Amino acid sequence: MGVDILVESLNAWYGTTHTLQDINLRIPANHATALIGPSGCGKSTFVRCLNRMHETNPDARATGMVRMGEIDIYKDASPVEIRRRVGMVFQRPNPFPTMSIYDNVISGLKLNGFRNRRILDETVERSLKQAALWEEVKDDLKKKSGASLSGGQQQRLCIARAVAVDPEVLLMDEPASALDPVSTSKIEDLIFHLKAQYTIVIVTHNMQQAARVAENTGFFLSGKMVEFDSTHKIFTNPRDKRTEDYITGRFG
Amino acid sequence: MTSEPTPQTLIPAPQLQISPEKLTSARSESEPSAVRLFLNSRGSSGLADQGFAALMLLCACSIFAIVGFIFVILVLRSRLSLAQFGSHFFTHTGWDPVSGDFGAFPFIYGTLVSSLLALLIAVPLALGVAIFITELCPRRLKAPISFLTELLAAIPSVVYGLWAVFVLVPIMRDQLGPFLVKYLGWTHLFEGANFGVGLLTASIILAIMILPIISSLTRDIMQAVPNSQREAVLALGATRWEMIRIGVLRNSRIGIVGAVMLGLGRALGETMAVTMVIGNHPEVPHSLFAPGYTLASVIANEFSEATGDLYLSALIEIGLALFLVTIVVNAIARLMVWAVTRGAPARIS
Ligand SMILES: Nc1ncnc2c1ncn2[C@@H]1O[C@H](COP(=O)(O)OP(=O)(O)OP(=O)(O)O)[C@@H](O)[C@H]1O
Ligand SMILES: [Mg+2]
Fold this sequence. Notes:
- The structure holds two protein chains of two kinds.
- Chain A is of the alpha/beta class.
- Chain A has a domain at about 5-95 and about 170-245: Rossmann fold (3-Layer(aba) Sandwich).
- Chain A contains eleven helices and ten strands.
- In chain A, the strands form two sheets. Chain A has a six-stranded mixed sheet with strand order 6-7-8-3-9-10, sandwiched between helices. A four-stranded antiparallel sheet of chain A has the order 2-1-4-5, with helices on one face.
- Chain B has a single domain (about 65-340), classed as MetI-like fold (Orthogonal Bundle).
- Chain B is about 70% helix and about 0% strand.
- Chain B has helices at about 20-25, 35-40, 45-75, 80-85, 105-135, 140-155, 155-185, 200-225, 225-235, 240-250, 255-270, 270-275, 295-300, 310-340, and strands at about 95, 100.
- In chain B, a hairpin with a 4-residue loop joins strand 1 and strand 2.
- The radius of gyration of chain B is 30 Å and the shape is flat.
- Chain B starts with 19 loop residues before the first helix and ends in an 8-residue tail after the last helix.
- Classes of the chains: A alpha/beta, B mainly alpha.
- Chains A and B meet through helix 2, helix 4, helix 7, helix 8 and helix 9 of A and helix 9 of B.
- The structure holds adenosine-5'-triphosphate (ATP) and magnesium ion.
- Magnesium ion (MG) binds near residues 44 and 173 of chain A.
């Protein structure tokens, strides 16, 4: 089952730039939550704070509390333990170029020493199907490398790699920005399926997509979270004038 | 699943028409801009391009010419000894200028063994240095360590030789040698008298000399691995070492083999420092403590005093042997790269 994520007074910096300012929200388990906002407002930074990827940047710093279920991820666990439970799809596709498609998908399992051939085979098929890539690559799973795919295929491979480890929380940073409408709707199907078991956070610039897949939506603007509410409320009757301006395209 | 109706929202339908004013307002219809006029006036530049290509082809050909020329000269000048000993020269042990008996085998053996042993010592160290600099080192230390490594590469080899004679040889004789005998004696690699000079000492000094070149090249290669690769591994729950192994080393393995090969090339041809500590004894050493000889050293030591045409010719054939050894070793290295990368292209997205 997924877990609730509770964020309290989260602040993040790159060097001296205060990128996230006092973020508070509760992301409910087994729901999809969308994050929207103009480019550069801190959506990626926020998502990266949820699996402690933010601190891998030597200039970066974060303070505040993030609870995942019972665990305060910055206090009670190591980054490695957290990232094993939280899957992440990055904004730019980053498959492993020296590994075959098959090895790319199971890289998270192999890394942790999982060796059962039969389950690995099943996982590869299941994950690639979920990521809507299976039909295109099933004949050269072990022949082609991760880098030989097109940009959109690489992104779907990364999605397969992230879901292969059965994460409790899945963070997706614009997973569909390089995909055609058919693949996009397959990824949205995937999110629909997965949220029965996982907690999903999805960053998107496509507001129809947010409206389609997410129960809740948060609107970010220059490092602050302006509004967080049910998607329906945000898109029909937002409380804040800036939210309304953004989603109606009158922004800026 | 997604067919659930979207709520009536404020999101505006996408606007596909562009208003006619927008299309024309940027500039007036008739006058092309100054930039456009300039770019249109530039022609095809075909001739300049062809000229450039021809020039580059010439540069590339000069490499073939130089290699061919060296090879031809080596063969021509060593024809006396080639005629006398034939291919037997390369497998024969014996080096007696007085009786005119020449064979290159001990030198080939000494060159190969000392260089490979040097690699065995230097490569793990160099990888460790490169990993430390690129992945682990606090940023304040990065520049000083990199600078020091590069400085090591700039020290002339005769200085290394002097250092080896005065520091490494005594250590080898009094501390390291007895230690190796005590703990690794069972391998039978460390037998016989240990005077401090010999194959192992030469290998150690060679390792120190090729360490900087391998580690600084490896460092550059590892630094070129995009950060997104490291993040991809870390996000899967990898420890730091797993991140380095999968995200960094795996992505740079071809470059690392290349760096190792450059180091090996330098070790094979290194003359001065090796000559000072290898013992210069033209026999196949039976132990790592025993003195040996390398192809480069024997040329350096004996060229000036080579009397007689056959002697000189044999020395030049030693040069030919070094040339061939280098080529063969590099060919093997290419094969290894090919074997490692077969199936998975080297591209990094
Ligand atoms: N590695 C970094 N070093 C320094 N500043 C950074 C770094 N990454 C992001 N920033 C800054 O932090 C701010 C937030 O960036 P972030 O990537 O979170 O934006 P975003 O909302 O994801 O934008 P987009 O929609 O374009 O992906 C930006 O102003 C950006 O310049
Ligand atoms: Mg982003």
